[in-house]
Fold each of these.
Amino acid sequence: MTLRKDFLWGGAVAAHQLEGGWNAGKKGPSVADVMTAGANGVERQITDGVIAGLNYPNHEAIDFYHRYKSDVKLFAELGLKCFRTSIAWTRIFPKGDELEPNEEGLQFYDDLFDECLKYGIEPVITLSHFELPYHLVTEYGGFGNRKLIDFFVRFAETVMTRYKDKVKYWMTFNEINNQANYLRDFAPFTNSGLKFPEGATAFEREKLMYQAAHYELVASALTVKIGHAINPDFQIGAMIAMCSIYPATCKPEDMMASTVAMQRRYWFSDVHVRGHYPAYLTTYFDRKKFNLDITQEDLSALTEGKVDYVGFSYYMSFAIQDQKASVSSDGTVSIMPGHGTILPEYAADELGAPTFDYVEDRDLVKNDFVKASEWGWQIDPLGLRWALNWFSERYDYLPLFIVENGFGAIDEVKADGSIHDPYRIEYLRAHIQAMEDAVEYDGVNLMGYTPWGFIDLVSAGTGEMKKRYGMIYVDKDNEGKGTLERRKKESFEWYQKVIQSNGEEL
Ligand code: BG6
């Protein structure tokens, strides 16, 4: 037996992607509520508030808000030991800056957690999963504003106090490091509620991203400290999007480019875990002359609020090549499929040695050794084992929790209503095997595994329904049509056995 007996087998979702009821129970609009549906390769539009007549897929999502009882029953049948979801900040503080919470919102999560606990399913809660109150964007500029630290901490303290006997496992900011891709609008907006002024330069975008991330890390550290005071048994973790960045070749320049790229994407977990900024980053801040607002008090807060574990998502790996070669004479930049275009001013700027500065959309290349999903996500199970080792060595075998992993694919419902998804089983099987190998052969300290979107939900990246991750099918299409009926896919029974056998039967 490789995995511990109390291994947390589960499933993961986020409030905005499944609950719906976007304005029910006095809930306020969040950043997810002002994002329209995109498509494969077409970015979602971020609108100025909710505009009548546009398709906002998160408004109804899969209507979990009204169906959670029957859904949780199905989760119990699947055999989940834990259920990772988020608390929608806007159900508790509809605008985000109120002093008093909304009782209806608090009651909803009391009922949901009671329902889970009734079946022995442990809730695992993310505090901020792309759900910042929209009011905090328009009135304060999102996490670019220091005031957001207090608003977040008030929210965190409120829910941690309320659910102190129902929830033990928490995470602060979901995939806090997505915003390392600051040249795009999507990640800075969903992570931090940042909207860049028209014509903002790459330098201004990058600086604002670092400022916001700093305030978030301080808010996270304060939350860890407060949480432990509320209940010393709480386990409070970081949540990092891990896409291992391999050097595309063994050319020393590619190796160095990969090292710097990993630093730029994963400094966030260094701060979460070690409680201070790494020298490679402060050196970069100085060189760039960012002059960020980082106070002595902030630095003390960071050291006092180190996380208990690292939660992370893993879907794919990246590869990087020292870049000069891939910018052609007409300025066209070759980038990974599905990653779109980047600001021209950054296309050829500051390439290569000696800084090896990393620009995500510019520098990543296709890895010919692995296949990719229809959405261009490179499939690499061994990369998960690599990632588990990377975190373990870096953070001295701190407990790790794989809180997202999965395969977005188009499913077909057969005439008899059945859904065969062997491609999903194959993906999950290979990743679970890699994770078990990491425990058995490499000694990583692993708490659990919660595959993403185990019930079909709205895609965060594209707003689509047809990019499905689930073992439970939900009858709804990209246009929002469908009965919302739930149906078990072939992978449902397969995962049931995996859990029952504690990962022995794959
Ligand atoms: C992660 C997020 O980025 O990946 C989830 O934490 C998201 O919210 C998941 O849904 C899969 O991405 P997508 O774009 O396929 O929904």
Amino acid sequence: FSHYKEVTEEILKDSYAIVIDLLRATSTMIWAISNGANVIIPVENILEAKLFKKLNESVLLGGERGGLKIEGFDLDNSPLSYKKEVVFGKAIVMTTTNGTRALKKASFAKRIFLGSFINAKKTAEYILKEALKDDMQKIAIVCAGTEKKFTLEDILCAGYFADIFKTCLEKIEVDDLSLASYELYKKFENDPHEILKYSYHYNHLKKLGFEADLEFCLKKDFVDCVCEYKNLVVEKV
Ligand code: MLT
């Protein structure tokens, strides 16, 4: 269990990683793929994204800086913008402040999956099945955080993954941070808003008027697809 800034090869080697940026990058990417986007190409900066568009006009540019749409981009980072009629069959180049960077940082892991409440169960089940086939013993959860700090929403979602793994496995060893995330999640599992209303990024998005995104990203398991970051792109497995 790590914040993406602290992720090292040592931590991630010989593991599968689940990268979580609950509000909102990984939730948005998963929803875009679930609505039929062919592929998402996460990039670290705006210039790189614009270069993709120059080379291929049919790609959509999505993402945010400060939570808001980037000038010249097609889409912001709200999952609700990634409707079927907008994204179906499209390649989307995305850059966000923390989420896309966290994905790149996780590339020391053997496989990298995207995590969110919206598809956590399916993702956890798929990972367990693959881990068994692959004799993989370690699953690392990488929280994107916000502005170089941990954020509560990612930790709650990590706790939900710990909860699912605990239910599915007879024996599981967790580090202290995973244990803390699990206990915190269990305390607020029925109403995460109850604790998140005191947290930084949740309030930032609320102030920007993204209440509907908060509701959306905190709903559990209504999406069936599992998303993997592989060969520099996010695709459905
Ligand atoms: C990020 O990558 O930092 C976030 O997804 C920001 C956001 O909520 O748009």
